[in-house]
Write the structure tokens for this entry.
Amino acid sequence: MNPSSAPEILEPRTAQEWEQARTLLNEYLKSLPIDGGFLNIGQEVAALPGEYGAERGGFWLARLNGIWAGCCALAPLDGTDYANACELRRLYVRPGMRKNNLGLGLTEHALDRARLHGYKHVLLDTLSDMEAARALYQGLGFKEIPPFYFNPIPGAHYLMATL
């Protein structure tokens, strides 16, 4: 990798870019250390952009040196104990592209977009064995909160950042 190359973070617009989004989401699902069937990612992939539409959410791809490297999404989160909230979802960076701060860049981009949408809270869930992700979120000011939805997986952590 050329360390001087800056990653690109972009919203998919073309059919090719949405196909990359689908590929990355499927890789994300396979990378999970659990059976992610309850997440309904297959339906989510088929319906893209779906709830990640630009009006209240978003979906972003990261590219480094011309290589599609990762993704993340933001979805409205209605009906929680937190007013004016959204959920950060599907943060994924391909294993060979990690250590390039792409996860940080994608998350910061999503937080900036959440602010632009007028959200006050960004919630997410992650797992105990996703230590790097938990450290990234904590470094960005996310704090542990009680569960905001049912996750049947032991070791789930629920986090929130106040914007």
The chain has four helices and seven strands. Residues 34 and 153 are 8 Å apart (CA to CA).
